[in-house]
Amino acid sequence: MSAQLSGTKKRHSTPGEAGAPLVQLRAVYKAFPLQQRLLGPSRHWVYAVNGVDLQLTPGRTVGLVGESGSGKSTVGKLICRLELPDSGQVLYDGQDVTRFRGAALRAYHRQVQMVFQNPYAALNPRKRVDSMLREVLKVHRLAGCSQMEERLVQLLEQVGLPAESRHRFPFEFSGGQRQRLCIARALAVEPRVLVCDEPVSALDVSIQAQILHLLKTIQQKNQLAMLFISHDLSVVYHMCDEVLIMYLGKIVERGEAERIFSQPLHPYTRALLSAIPVAEPGRKRERIVLHGEIPSATRRPPGCPFYSRCPQRLPHCQTEFPPAHSPQTGHTVWCWLYREGHQPIRMDQS
Ligand code: ADP
Ligand code: MG
């Protein structure tokens, strides 16, 4: 998105205000077999998520940012229980979601909803809007016959669509309107957690801001615990309270959104931030161009995952994963540059 950063971000909640987490990921790992063999386990794996910790709290939005292939969607699917972790825990209200069965699992799938990147693929082209929403409401027994019509109109209004649009098919809507329909379908089941996976990446720039505004309004009104996934840091600025920066399956920096934007510490965060235009006339931000692409996730590097592209890498970054450095409550970076008493030496200059 070409959104520019300007003005002061309106805070939605402060670190101290955050209540008890509703969703927690604790040291979660997930790998996918690369080639499925007929007999025996696969020899090759894609290490999508490598020890991620994360918390979602009602009324707060957490942004998960990183390049394509860094494992963001897998984190979203693990939260929605569309994937199961290889190790670590995914907790909902303190309970391990992998143990949910039957009614408990159905209730979980209702309370944790996902909005996907592509609203074209997410809707059944053969169903009119009203039959799509009716089905959802019926399956979850959320409205009796007498309240059905009223609830449908209410849902459409909530996402800014006219009541008459319930008689139309998905192909009769524009991309932005289809994403509104996907949001209405997610809201129909009155979720407590919303995972938005690149919800505006497939939309025209002119529509993106409207959908972001809608999601923010809904999140605040319903006090949803929201995970907002994006490859674009500028989109996240106005949406999120906290931001996690992910690279090759690992979180490399996390902090309150304002802090990440004003004092980014990790070289990767700085590079992502340097790509965003500054709105103030005369002010320039030095552009940090990263060379190459995110490496293949078929290896789990022992050191810092960003080593191969880092402009400030040190020799031992390749072999040892950096310890956590927390300059302030709620702000943590995993980078050898911040080891106490450490004098940064630039490898490219040495
Ligand atoms: P992102 O959303 O950040 O682009 P993903 O979570 O989609 O990243 O993918 C992370 C890595 O895991 C990628 O290398 C991707 O190819 C791989 N991956 C994701 N899902 C699967 C799957 N079902 N089978 C095999 N590999 C997968
Ligand atoms: Mg993705």
Q: How is this structure best summarized?
A:
This protein has 350 residues and is an alpha/beta fold. The chain has helices spanning 72-79, 102-111, 129-139, 145-158, 175-188, 205-221, 233-237, 257-262, 267-274; strands at 23-33, 45-56, 61-65, 87-92, 95-96, 112-115, 193-197, 225-230, 242-247, 250-256, 324-328, 331-334.
Please, could you describe this protein's structure?
- It is a single chain.
- By secondary structure, the chain is α/β, with parallel strands linked by helices.
- It folds into two domains: 19-35 and 43-121 and 190-262, Rossmann fold (3-Layer(aba) Sandwich); 264-350, no CATH class.
- Helix content is 27%, strand content 21%.
- It has nine helices and twelve strands.
- It has helices at 72-79, 102-111, 129-139, 145-158, 175-188, 205-221, 233-237, 257-262, 267-274, and strands at 23-33, 45-56, 61-65, 87-92, 95-96, 112-115, 193-197, 225-230, 242-247, 250-256, 324-328, 331-334.
- The protein has an eight-stranded mixed beta sheet, sandwiched between helices.
- Helix 3 (129-139) packs parallel to helix 5 (175-188) and helix 5 (175-188) runs parallel beside helix 6 (205-221).
- The chain starts with 22 loop residues before the first strand and ends in a 16-residue tail after the last strand.
- Mean pLDDT is 89; it is low at 1-8 and 344-350.
- Magnesium ion binds at residues 72-73, 197.
- Adenosine-5'-diphosphate (ADP) binds next to strand 2 and helix 1.
